[in-house]
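Q: Here's a chain of 229 amino acids. Please give me its 3D structure as tokens.
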Amino acid sequence: MSSNCIKCTVVGDGAVGKTSLLVTYSTGSFPTDYVPTIFDSYAVNVEIKGRAGPFKLSLFDSAGQEEYDRIRRLTYHNTDVFLVCFSVVKPESAQNIELKWVKELKQYMPGTPFILVGTQVDLREDSKTLRKLQKKNQKPISSSVGKNIAKKVGAQKYIECSAFRQTGIKNVFDEAIVTGCCKDDDIEERGHHFLRRIRSFRLPSLKNRFSELAGNVRSGFDSVRTRFW
């Protein structure tokens, strides 16, 4: 299996636009109906200028509701990069980035990089949405506030997008691919990451070899590559 396979898992509060983000990116069409997600997955082949490709991006959608916490965490295994989403017109979802989502990722997937994504930016200018916020003495989350949150929680980057307008979508996933590819800095970690990719995609011909080689990860990526080829 090519090392150009990236697993990207999307997390965040319910109804912040996670599914719309994934569906719009993978199909090119904005979904008109909202159906709360428990679990779903998508696969997209993409090319990025200046990067050896194509890349196979496996996308995993997850439920943000508390009652699905245990199911959601099952999708975390072998994730290369997380997209942590909040809606720029739902201040409580931005508060939960630090209070819940980053805290959860650091507990269950420590060291895995994540990108902070501000969704539904088109609604910053929506009069109906603004009136609802004003009644609560709230206002949309600004881009500068989003960047500050990203810096505070240790996100690799902060990106804003609108699935409805289809703006910023490609940038989100291009950055996810780059972040997923470049997360390992030393040989030992790259060797371990390579084996994780193989296990994630369950290649039958390598099943026994993985078991044999798992204990030898510390010998470095070159030794792992030699055993496979």
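Q: Can you summarize the key feature?
A: The beta strands are 5-12, 39-46, 55-62, 81-87, 114-119, 158-160.
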